[in-house]
Amino acid sequence: MARIDIFTPSYKKEERYSDAAIGFNINPFNGNIARVTEAQSIMQALKTLLLTNQGERLYNMDMGSKIRASLFEPLDEITASTINTSITQAINNYEPRVNIIQLQVTPSEELNAFKVNLFFTVINIPEVQQLNFTLKRVR
């Protein structure tokens, strides 16, 4: 009797988006660099895009966002609105796979930082994804 294993090419799930894991971890099964796929790959790309300053990428000086410039401004709603606009512009300009559903940037007095909650959908993936991170001053 024939059997289909999960390792046969006919059973393999189609991957639309994939990328190397940001920590360059090693996959213990095959010894290659670990990969992230589908929505995790998009979340990793978004976080990298948003935490990159404009001018940091060689040969693409416009890519990135102006978030870090706003972190040394007063911790208030006006600065949160500026960060919200910077995030929206960066995603609309450089990440065409993402459709923003809701973006919340709130100042946190106790953390002395801004909390970012991003709800979005990815093209060809119907589920709503959520990305949460905190923007803090380094110095």
Brief characterization of the structure:
The protein has 139 residues and is α+β, with helices and mostly antiparallel strands. It is built from three helices and five strands; from the N terminus they run ββαααβββ. The longest helix is centred in the middle third of the chain and has 18 residues.
Question: Can you put this structure into words, describing what you see?
Answer:
By secondary structure, the chain is of the alpha+beta class. The chain has helices spanning 38-50, 67-70, 77-94; strands at residues 18-20, 35-37, 98-108, 113-122, 125-136. Strands 3-4-5 form a 3-stranded antiparallel β-sheet. A two-stranded antiparallel sheet has the order 1-2.
Tell me the number of structural domains: 1
The percentage helix is 25-40%
CA gyration radius, whole angstroms:
19 Å
**Topology as a string of helices (H) and strands (E):** EEHHHEEE
Question: Termini distance?
Answer: 66 Å
Query: What's the CATH class label?
Result: Alpha Beta
Count of helix runs: 3
Feature tags:
Nuclear Transport Factor 2, Chain: A, 3 helices, alpha+beta, 139 residues, 5 strands
Topology readout:
Elements: E1 18-20, E2 35-37, H1 38-50, H2 67-70, H3 77-94, E3 98-108, E4 113-122, E5 125-136
Antiparallel strand pairs: 1-2, 3-4, 4-5
